[in-house]
Design brief:
Layout lengths: L9 E6 L16 E2 L2 E2 H11 L4 E6 L3 H12 L5 E4 L6 H9 L10 E6 L7 H10 L3 E6 L9 E4 L5 E5 L6 H4 L4 E9 H7 L22 E4 L2 H4 L5 H21 L3 E2 L6 E2 L5 E2 L4 E2 L4 E3 L3 E2 L4 E2 L4 E3 L2 E2 L4 E2 L4 E3 L1 E3 L4 E2 L4 E2 L3 E3 L4 E13 L4 E13 L4 E2 L4 E3 L9 E3 L4 E2 L4 E3 L2 E3 L4 E2 L4 E2 L8 E2 L11 H14 L2
Parallel strand pairs: 1-4, 1-6, 4-5, 7-11, 12-15, 13-16, 14-17, 15-18, 16-19, 17-20, 18-21, 19-22, 20-23, 21-24, 22-25, 23-26, 24-27, 25-27, 26-27, 27-28, 28-29, 28-31, 29-32, 30-33, 31-34, 32-35, 33-36, 35-37
Antiparallel strand pairs: 2-3, 6-10, 7-10, 8-9
This protein binds uridine-diphosphate-N-acetylglucosamine (UD1) and calcium ion.
The site of uridine-diphosphate-N-acetylglucosamine has 29 residues, from strand 1, helix 3 and strand 10.
């Protein structure tokens, strides 16, 4: 028999349950912790632990769960097995055995629960190292939970696990509980799993009935905590948030208030000396450069923010890129396809979508730039709107380098404003503007002398005669 340490384990992830206690239309393992579905956390743990194979047991809404896995890793990268009927954790592992027929008896199978996302790869390695026939993790919960109670033998090995529903009051008083992760020799699984019975309070085949004689390792509750309901989900999110915040602070990022900062697990870079205000959300695959300032309340999703940029309060960015030293907000909305080059300024109440603003371009107040390309140093006046949509199709607006768009102008696409051209305030541009020209479309102003005085006098007369 190979020593367990010398081989990488097969990891089986139990993810077939409905998660009744979540009271959700969504399968439990697709609920998210720090922006990542639970099932993805378990798969990431398995990968980090160098799993030889990863097999997810799916059942309830299996197609949705499979889709979520395939979307992230590509079709087939993670094997799935269908547990058509949910007959318990023992039965789920039995289903997984069907795809392990070619593996040798001395392989170690690690079983993870798809609802315990924060288990570390180190813990998996420790468990594999402790496994002769079987090892499992025990934990001492810091609050009341309905976990399996672990009864130990005099030699420290597991005597048995009693599920909460089956426990006597004395057994229920046991403080050591089953964390729900196991390393089991494949030969033992093959020999023993057929002997499980559903002779228990829940009428299920319990994987925990294989535990007698197993070695036990200890794990902190925060790490192995499972998610059964929404309160658990919030608690585990808080734990994840705290550890993610710690990691970035140690990497040289200032968080004004780490408890009120929401950084997703998949945010892969935040540079040194970046400052992040309270209530900021960095979501999805966002990356942030060095010396960036992100003020309170910004929500940044799947975006790239370059060095020395400044996101002012309450700006919302989705699938956007922000160049070095660029400034955005307060209250700016950069929608998908926004590309701001170096030194660009996008000010308050400016909305951008599929818009490329080149180096040093400015749109400082109240504007909508959609399907637009804005050349270097161009200045977009307050209230400028690209009219990019005719109700059927979208059209492109091109504003060339150095152009100046006066306030309250409408640019009716498709249209091009030439290099260094001017658009007078209040102009509706419907034709291309040549390089260096001035476009003006507004009605000529004429003043009527004394009109306001006469108007007021007439009003006053009417009210007094009433
Ligand atoms: C389980 C353990 C319990 C342990 C606790 C730790 C059993 C019988 N009990 O209880 O000792 O203290 O975890 O969190 O194992 N699943 C399937 N197919 C099924 C049933 C469950 O795939 O037929 C999956 C679920 O989707 C879930 C995991 O297995 O991801 C655990 O099932 P769950 O019902 O949450 O078990 P617990 O009651 O929490
Ligand atoms: Ca559970």
């Amino acid at each position: 028999m190979l020593p367990a340490m010398s081989q990488s384990p097969i990891v089986v992830i139990l993810a077939a349950g409905q998660g009744t206690r979540m009271k959700s239309e969504r399968p439990k393992v697709l609920h998210e912790v720090a922006g990542r579905p639970l099932i993805i956390w378990s798969i990431e743990t398995a990968r980090a632990a160098n799993a030889a194979r990863i097999v997810a047991v799916v059942g309830h809404q299996a197609d949705r769960v499979r889709d979520a896995i395939d979307r992230r890793y590509g079709a087939g990268a993670v094997e799935t097995v269908l547990q058509a009927e949910r007959r318990g954790t023992g039965h789920a592992v039995m289903c997984a055995l069907s795809v392990l027929a070619g593996e040798s008896d001395d392989r170690v199978v690690v079983v993870l629960s798809g609802d315990a996302p924060l288990v570390s790869a180190d813990r998996v390695r420790e468990l594999v190292a402790a496994c002769d026939d079987m090892a499992l993790a025990v934990t001492r919960p810091t609050e009341p939970v309905a976990y399996g109670r672990v009864v130990r033998r005099a030699d420290g090995r597991v005597d048995r696990i009693v599920e909460d529903a089956d426990a006597t009051p004395e057994e229920r008083a046991i403080e050591e509980m089953n964390a729900g992760l196991y390393a089991i020799r494949l030969g033992k699984l093959r020999a023993d799993i057929g002997r499980l019975t559903d002779d228990n309070a829940q009428g299920e085949l319990y994987l925990t009935d294989l535990a007698p004689g197993a070695a036990a390792i200890e794990a902190p509750f925060d790490e192995v905590r499972g998610i059964n309901d929404r309160a658990d989900l919030a608690a585990v999110n808080a734990i994840a948030r705290r550890s993610i915040a710690q990691r970035w602070m140690r990497a040289g990022v200032t968080l004004e208030d780490p408890v009120a900062t929401y950084i997703d697990a998949d945010v892969d870079a935040i540079g040194g000396d970046t400052w992040i205000g309270s209530g900021v959300h960095l979501r999805g695959r966002t990356s942030v450069g060095a010396r960036v300032r992100i003020d309170a309340g910004c929500i940044v999703q799947d975006s790239a923010i370059a060095d020395d940029a400044w996101l002012k309060p309450y700006s919302v960015l989705t699938e956007a890129s922000v160049g070095a030293r660029a400034q955005v907000g307060p209250f700016a909305h950069c929608r998908p396809g926004t590309r701001l080059d170096e030194d660009v300024r996008v000010g308050n109440f400016v909305e951008t979508k599929k818009a490329h603003l080149m180096k040093g371009a400015k749109a400082n107040h109240l504007a909508y730039l959609g399907d637009a390309s804005v050349g270097a140093r161009a200045n977009i006046g307050a209230g400028t709107i690209t009219c990019n949509y005719d109700g059927v199709k979208k059209y492109q607006t091109v504003i060339e380098a150095g152009a100046f768009i006066g306030s309250d102008s409408q640019l009716v696409a498709p249209v091009t404003i030439g290099r260094d051209a001017y658009v007078g305030s209040g102009t509706t541009v419907t034709k291309d503007v040549p390089r260096g020209a001035l476009a003006l479309s507004r009605v000529k102003q004429h003043n009527i002398d004394g009109w306001a005085d006469r108007f007021r006098a007439a009003q006053a007369k009417r009210t007094s005669s009433r």
